[in-house]
Specification:
The complex is a heterodimer of chains A (267) and B (306). Chain A is built from ten helices and no strands. Chain A has helices at residues 2-12, 14-47, 66-75, 77-101, 103-108, 114-146, 158-182, 186-209, 227-231, 237-260. In chain A, helix 1 (2-12) crosses helix 6, helix 6 packs antiparallel against helix 10 and helix 7 (158-182) packs across helix 8. With 306 residues, chain B is an alpha/beta fold. Chain B is 31% helix and 29% strand. In chain B, helix 7 links the parallel strand 7 and strand 8. Chain B has helices at residues 47-54, 76-82, 98-109, 116-122, 127-130, 139-151, 169-184, 196-202, 220-225, 267-273, 288-295, and strands spanning 9-18, 21-31, 36-40, 62-67, 70-71, 83-86, 157-161, 188-193, 205-210, 213-219, 228-235, 248-254, 257-263, 278-283. The chains are: A mainly alpha (267), B alpha/beta (306). The A-B interface holds A 1, 4-5, 8, 12, 101-103, 105-113, 260, 262-266 and B 18, 48, 52, 55, 57-59, 76-78, 80-81, 85, 87-95, 104-105, 107-110, 149.
């Protein structure tokens, strides 16, 4: 029964997931190519003073090393949009969306506890996010191989980057799922989840561009996802811990709130 | 809540409040195994709230409920394993075909859909229709899907919220036939409705609920027997004196015609009017609608008599 729900949750998302994986792969391949083609030119422009050096540090990434460029690629608004749509959209539609459509009632009239429903949806979302992060990394490595710079990367450290990425996106999905089980409609749940993601992104980017706002960065989950640092062998266990805690806290909250909620008749 | 009987459904002082709004107040119900129980009331009376508490969707503010001997709060998963539920205004996964939706819900139920083929046949949902996506279904077809998904695993207890909503008269009759079979097989059915003729037709007992409070709980026959029925008699010549007939009231005599209201046994009345000069005799059947309206006399009723 649980397995059926798990596969069906994946099946609802299969078309979107396929598109997402293609987009992530494509974007990943592009980053090393851009790095190879434009890194030197950009460095010259920075050295000549045409571009302020701060603008070259976007989040935790930069354009001057391959690991930095990969980080930049993973924190680029496009990558955030690709994965974020999925990390927020799937959890929100899985519970609040079903509730809004009225199908949650039929689902929960089966011998399925709400804790189990939550757990199955959470695992399915986590799997899909893991595939998305893997697609981004596979794309990046493929791109690096294609342009002959793969030796700049310690591929043995990629699993740690993958874990860090899954934990960070899992934390956003966990917040979205907690919001999803707390609201009767998808709109407010999406509002909370999107607000959380944008606030985190704003803190990280603002802190990287403006020294006075640097103190905000540690409060952003994006600051605790630093592939460049990991690939240079300087990964901070605290980053993993922060992302893991940020994933677990909403999950615990959701597991407490969801079973206790009154599910009144859909309007 | 401790169980005191072997009832299929038992509620004791069941109360549900939403802030200051009392949706359900001290509801005591007992549904016996093997009966078809009608739960009557207009919209907002508390029918769906009761059903949702029985299924564990809502938590009672006070009191308790047991379904098939299991506590509705702490053993809700086990309850749902043994029942079939048709929600009011059912929504089914639009993107799936009818067959896939039934398969999915059947798999989640964890019991073999032993009655699906029979139900599909009786409700005229052939394989060609089940191959279409649910989004292409009419309201009536969705309702039929709702009935099938609720009953396909042959549950011990069926909880049906407005089961004939959206069904055409032919399908309503088919559904009543299904209920008759469930009764014959010893299954219990708890159904809410505001279609009184339907309840009168299929239910053994009915509970009437108003503003969250139980107003009456009787057998349908008993409820009807307690109703006054309108009588009309016509004779050749002058109407005889019927003032001594027990239960007869509101008499109006107009030459050869007499009308009145009769409560209780009709035999004394029939004996009194029987004579060679009798031309016409009409005893209108007692209707559940009248019984129902009595409990709702001081407020507008949304009850339909279909």
């Amino acid at each position: 029964m649980t397995l059926r729900l798990f596969w069906q949750t994946l099946a609802w998302n299969r078309a979107r997931l396929a598109l997402l994986l293609l987009a992530c792969l494509g974007w990943g391949v592009l980053i090393p190519i851009i790095y190879t083609g434009f890194s030197d030119a950009i460095r010259e422009m920075v050295n000549s003073g045409m571009i302020p050096e701060n603008l070259m540090s976007f989040g935790s990434g930069n354009f001057f090393t391959l690991p930095g460029a990969l980080t930049l690629g993973l924190q680029h608004p496009l990558a955030i949009a690709f994965v974020g749509v999925f990390a927020l959209g799937s959890p929100v539609t899985a519970v609040a969306g079903e509730r809004e459509r009225g199908t949650l009632e039929v689902l929960l009239s089966r011998p399925l506890s709400r804790q189990r429903h939550y757990t199955v949806v959470a695992l399915a979302v986590l799997l899909m996010l893991a595939l998305a992060v893997a697609a981004l990394l596979i794309g990046q490595v493929s791109g690096a191989v294609a342009v002959g710079i793969a030796d700049e990367l310690d591929l043995g450290l990629l699993p740690l980057v993958f874990l860090n990425g899954v934990l960070m996106w899992g934390a956003f999905a966990s917040v979205a799922l907690a919001a999803s089980v707390s609201f009767d409609r998808a709109g407010p749940a999406m509002g909370v989840a999107l607000g959380f993601l944008l606030t985190n992104y704003f803190f990280e980017i603002l802190g990287s561009l403006w020294d006075a706002a640097e103190f905000l960065q540690p409060y952003s989950l994006f600051h605790h996802f630093d592939p460049g640092q990991i690939l240079q062998g300087d990964g901070d266990p605290l980053d993993f811990a922060v992302c893991a805690v940020a994933l677990v806290i909403p999950a615990v909250w959701a597991l407490m709130v969801y079973p206790r909620r009154d599910l009144a008749a859909p309007a | 809540m401790e169980t005191t009987t072997n009832a299929a459904i038992e509620t004791r002082a069941l109360t549900k409040r939403y802030g200051s709004i009392e949706a359900l107040t001290d509801l005591d119900l007992e549904v016996r195994p093997g009966e078809i129980f009608g739960f009557l009331g207009p919209n907002g009376a508390g029918k769906s709230t009761t059903i949702r508490i029985l299924l564990g969707f809502l938590h009672p503010t006070a009191g308790g409920a047991r379904v098939l001997g299991l506590d509705a709060v702490t053993q809700s998963v086990e309850i749902r394993r043994r029942i079939g539920y048709l929600p009011g205004g059912i929504a089914i996964y639009d993107s799936l075909s009818g067959a896939d939706a039934l398969d999915y819900l059947g798999d989640l139920q964890g019991s073999a859909p032993v009655r699906r083929n029979e139900l599909c046949e009786r409700l005229e949902m052939p394989a060609s229709v089940l191959r279409r996506r649910v989004r292409d279904y009419s309201r009536g077809m969705r309702q039929k899907m709702g009935v099938i998904q609720a009953l396909q695993h042959d549950p011990e207890l069926a909880v049906l919220d407005e089961p004939t909503e959206g069904l055409d008269p032919l399908m309503q009759q088919a559904f009543y036939g299904i209920l008759d079979d469930l009764r014959a097989a010893g299954r219990t059915v708890f159904m809410s409705s505001h279609v009184l003729s339907e309840v009168e037709r299929v239910c053994d007992r009915v509970a009437i609920i108003r503003r969250g409070r139980l107003m009456a709980l009787h057998g349908v026959e008993e409820l009807l027997a307690r109703r006054k029925r309108r009588v009309q008699v016509r004779w050749r010549g002058v109407a005889p004196d019927l003032s001594d007939v027990p239960g007869l009231s509101d008499l109006v005599v107009d030459d050869d015609r007499l009308t009145g209201m009769l409560l209780g046994d009709v035999a004394p009345f029939v004996r009194a009017v029987a004579s060679p000069s009798l031309v016409d005799l009409i005893i209108e059947p007692a209707r559940l609608e009248e019984a129902f309206l009595e409990y709702y006399a001081d407020e507008p009723s949304e009850v339909a008599d279909a």
